């Protein structure tokens, strides 16, 4: 009998890549999506969709069951300028998911954070990510995988022309970033999704933080 995976953020850049990879993966029989709206492009019989307010994730308690949780939730300053709402999304949802995983006996939790995550940072974004990581780890799950990508590459349909130009330029110089600078290379959403699945199916230690360059290395050799 195949495994059941839970995805939060399946409509986003990384989450959509993760969903497609899990659909193709024969180890998984069921993929549960928890989101605010239907993912209309998905027709796989593996997929079950649960629609509601993720800021009140507890409403899904009885359905939030499975073997692994993949949290790809995240917003940006431009999309969510209100800092209180920003923290409810980037801190509140991943932590609520970790608490439900603990409550329902789910052994594996993988979450996308950010390279600069630091609970003591003076930068609001980095501070929120660092506080999220600490709160997730505090749930003491069997296995917690925290991925800290740098700039995430991929097809952002909503991206403005200037943003696309910036990503393209950074992608060109990424190969020049060597040694200690490798961690600043662009990480494709496909690579993040691949690393999340690989880690969740590995026999790694209880809590693992995966740096940006390590994400690329896992993807390259997997």
UniProtKB/TrEMBL annotation:
InterPro entries with a match to the protein in the record: NAD(P)-bd_dom, NAD(P)-bd_dom_sf
Look up the coiled coil feature and give its residue ranges. Answer: none
Extract the SUPFAM superfamilies matched here. NAD(P)-binding Rossmann-fold domains
Q: In what residue span(s) does the NAD(P)-binding domain sit?
A: 9-160
Q: Name one Pfam family in it.
A: NAD_binding_10
This protein's name? Putative NAD(P)-binding protein
